[in-house]
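A brief tutorial aside. Many learners find it easier to grasp structure tokens once they have seen a single protein encoded end to end. The record that follows does exactly this for Diaminopimelate decarboxylase. Read the sequence first, then the structure, and try to relate runs of similar tokens to stretches of the chain.
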Amino acid sequence: MENANLLAIAEEFGSPIYVYDSEKIVSQYERLTGAFKQVKHVKLNYAVKALSNLAILKLMNSLGAGLDTVSIQEVKLGLLAGVEPANIIFTPNGVSLEEIEKVSEMGVQINIDNLSILEQFGTKHPDVPVCIRINPHVMAGGNSKISVGHIDSKFGISIHQIPHILRIVENTGMNINGIHMHTGSDILDVDVFLYASEILFETAKNFKNLDFIDFGSGFKVPYKEGDIETNIEEFGEKLTKRFNTFCKEYGKELILGFEPGKFLVSEAGYFLAKVNVVKQTTSTVFAGIDSGFNHLIRPMFYDSYHGIINVSNPKGRERFYSIVGYICETDTFATNRRILEITEGDILAFKNAGAYCFSMASNYNSRFRPAEVLWHNNKAHLIRKRETFDDITKNQIDIDIFNKVEVPAS
């Protein structure tokens, strides 16, 4: 998107605001499917938690993607967006048997990641096909908070518990139709994926009625100019060869599954905010914006990097700024970042704001969550209205139980 497009959106819809470029989402989807074009059956299930707006889910559905969901609410959003139940996989963690049963009744593919629920569900519903999430005990990911496949992780059933799984399957007679893993996010090394994949292939040999093997996701995307990223093409070439060989050994053409979220939408997103104040201190120049970590928590939560450009002054000279928000705590997006000269009223654009930005936004400090816009076919489409004060109070109940206390005169 051009600076002029972003400025026009900020002027029309106000700030702060999220903007998503559909063209980039499409190109990322085509890049990933293209890397596995030599596999007969490939299925991408978009990770809804990355960005769950209905317009985005409809776009994914139009591309042929299914959905990877982690809550019954995400399942309902997918169905509301027109996605067929058979194209939705439910991969929760730590939810109740009741929630899993409710989702199962919707016709969605169930993915179970613990022995207790596996046995309970299999005993009550042996005819319902179930996928099993394996923990491969592989430490991977760009941050400890997003590494989910290691031995101390709460996710998945340990590979050392395969005998327990097989005992449950035999005792219940349940149908295991898929094997799944997810080791973490922001994984750069292709060999980490391939190593974990071998563990999954070895595990799959224990199950004779599989329809698919789901390799999760976690592909690293670039966050700055010259940044390194997962070599999707190399990974596609190497895993394709190994997967096709395994299918021949298994005696069946299985579906190769992935569940990308960040890879598809991160680079498509921009977060626009207006500069309220430029504040010079004895050591730092702060640019304070009309937002905070209530709208973009990733820098504070994951120490993540978001490129920041001054779209109001594309020809200015560069200076060093610390970009901070209006939350009354440490609320820093960037420290001593080289940015084109900023003046009060300028619009700053944060890059890589498509994944885990709006979806992790909150009403902290009783601030409104921003609007969302989809840039599609060179036109801005409002896909979520900005919240109002009524949204802050609509679920609160005003109770009249407090009597006025008379304070005696001193």
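Self-check: The chain has a mean pLDDT of 92. If you spotted this yourself, you are ready for the next section.
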